[in-house]
Amino acid sequence: MRISTAMMYQQNMRGVTNSQSEWLRYGEQMSTGKRVTKPSDDPIAASQAVVLSQAQAQNSQYALARTFATQKVSLEENVLGQVTTAIQSAQEKIVYANNGTLSDDDRASLAKDIEGIRNQILNLANSTDGNGRYIFAGYKTESAPFSGDAGNVTYNGGDKAVTQSVDASRTMTIGHLGSQIFDKVTSNAVPEPDGSASETNLFDMLDSAIKVLNTPTADLTDAEKGAIDKTSRGLKNSLNNVLTVRAELGTQLSELDKLDELGSDRALGQAQQMSDLVDVDWNSAISSYVMQQAALQASYKAFSDMQGMSLFQLNK
Hints:
Residues 3-141 form the Flagellin N-terminal domain. The protein is mainly alpha-helical and 316 residues long.
């Protein structure tokens, strides 16, 4: 087989180009810190990295969702803490109202105090999250869940509690309905002595007590005389219900903390897996870079020497 000068030139140029390409590839790895910068570098690792990056993005989204959930749950728990204090204050007033020595003026004064507590609780029931969204309105966050005046407070919020996915297999309630808190009692509620259903609406309980206390003692009917005791039982049941919701919120906050720890551990593991897939092995890269640099220099030398071996130069 005859080897022409042109063929020798092309072969040497191909060798130089290949060596230069490899040398530049290792240089790029060292400059970027990445072994895989495009799919052709390592198709299997690149495809695995795509799947892993999706898992990382999902983990980050759940971490953001947990931050939002923690803020919502903490806010609700804080508001219900104030509701708890208000109900306990109302209980103290109701206990004092049972004092048979109180004058009508004393009773009217107590009615004013209880009315103030009722209005405070109504204001808390219509609390917002700082962005104008009502926290006890379910998904109807743009309008106040409770409306009305004395003796006629109604719930206008949604019928579905706000939930949030906080992990791949965990969805929790982050916004309870106002009806679940202010118009409900627990299964172990104190029953009425006559066997009738326990009163559930917190505002109705307080309004009935206010009405009775504003009525002169001499004008009270037998049914009205028992209203204070009924309110006392109702407040106890309502308080237990609020405390039950607060216990649930506390459990959720604890769970969110644990899920955050799990998410952080997962993120570290995913970062390590991604590093193993696409990051450069510095010892290997530096060694290969130096070796390829030497090979490139040898290719340059061989090409330079080969140029002086044509027949025309030998016949001179």
